[in-house]
Amino acid sequence: MNGIADLLILFFFLVLPFALWLWALVDIITNEFTGNNKILWLLVVILVPLIGLLAYFIVGRKQKLLKN
After folding, report:
1. Which of 38-41's residues contact partners 24+ apart within 8 Å by CB, and which partners?
2. Domain ranges within the chain, ordered by starting residue
């Protein structure tokens, strides 16, 4: 039973945040933003991973330009 709990802790505190961080980086790189927002979001997500990740998913995704 302890092994399953350890795996869940590992998943929620290491694997899931890394996967979301990687997803945010790919999302930033593959989309267009106005002005220098792309560089700004890349720096924020890379330099302050957890807070930058949360900020990007709350605020940054709304700043993407729509594709025609």
Report:
1. none
2. 18-68
Query: Does residue 45 contact residue 62 with C-beta atoms inside 8 Å?
Result: no
Share of residues in the chain with pLDDT > 70 (%): 97
Residue whose tokens read 């924020």: 44
* Cα–Cα distance measured from residue 60 to residue 45, given in angstroms and rounded to the nearest whole number: 10
Dig out the tokens for 67 from the structure.
């594709």
The secondary structure of residue 60, as a DSSP letter, is G
Tokens of 3: 């092994």
Q: Report the distance separating Cα 66 and Cα 63, nearest Å.
A: 9
The amino acid that residue 11 corresponds to is F
pLDDT of residue 59 exceeding 80, the answer is yes
Report the candidate in 41, 46, 50, 42 with the shortest Cα–Cα distance to residue 14.
50
